[in-house]
């Protein structure tokens, strides 16, 4: 099914015409939602600290999680104490949950588990991001909130919007869901503060981001020796663009004996992955690895990647953030 959707969205498959009426309905519902907020029928909640939303206008992955991790590290270097909120896709969450180090992906979602494992940042997941943000502020001394996804979650007022785009696939056939990958029309990009292009080539109004891979890490032992290059491996991925991951492994010098694509956020079983790997080393993404820590075998590995952005982006973001922080600090003191 995922391969069929990929052909419809990104290779102009004729089946898109069957879904266009539903896309029209999706567009109407989306427009009415936005209209409710613009007319004041529904009100967005403004928080006392700056809010940075990292999202996209397409369904599927485009590099949001590496970008969030990059922002956490950048803000810490500048003296900020960031916290993160997320929906926790792929799991059913009642209310809000604090994501602690070692949290299981089955409880909080794979991306939140990965973000906290990598950064130990204060983080809360919940279906309603306003509630998650309030819980984060109530229990942690944070001075800026990063929302992992949520560009279309208008109930939460935001101060800076960052939209990610996959540099290879871009916006596909430019149709709304389900005929295409768009959550909102391309017009939405005119109102965001930054458009980050993951992988390039970047257009004039886009900031180029590259993902730099590190050495493979054993899933069951983070301080293991890296897996040697130039051997046969089985590669698997449950992310938005698995082919990018497979291409990276090939570029690093690994021979892919088999590649397997899973649905984004899919849960795994020990039996399923044992059968898949066989005698070959099994290589997966870092996001998938957090779902396998409890039953990982010694020949399972993951590939960590780090986002790299431009100094110009860092300067522009920090300058805008400083202005927002000063304004909100002034308002909190009654100025």
From TrEMBL:
Pfam families for this protein: LpxK
Keywords: ATP-binding, Kinase, Lipid A biosynthesis, Lipid biosynthesis, Lipid metabolism, Membrane, Nucleotide-binding, Transferase, Transmembrane, Transmembrane helix
Superkingdom of origin: Bacteria
Reaction catalysis annotation: a lipid A disaccharide + ATP = a lipid IVA + ADP + H(+)
Pathway: Glycolipid biosynthesis; lipid IV(A) biosynthesis; lipid IV(A) from (3R)-3-hydroxytetradecanoyl-[acyl-carrier-protein] and UDP-N-acetyl-alpha-D-glucosamine: step 6/6
Keyword Lipid biosynthesis recorded: yes
Transmembrane segments: 14-32
Entry EC no(s): 2.7.1.130
Residues given in the record as ATP binding sites: 58-65
Enzyme class: transferase
Function of the molecule: Transfers the gamma-phosphate of ATP to the 4'-position of a tetraacyldisaccharide 1-phosphate intermediate (termed DS-1-P) to form tetraacyldisaccharide 1,4'-bis-phosphate (lipid IVA).
Stated family: Belongs to the LpxK family.
Listed name of the protein: Tetraacyldisaccharide 4'-kinase
Organism: Shewanella ulleungensis
Gene it is expressed from: lpxK
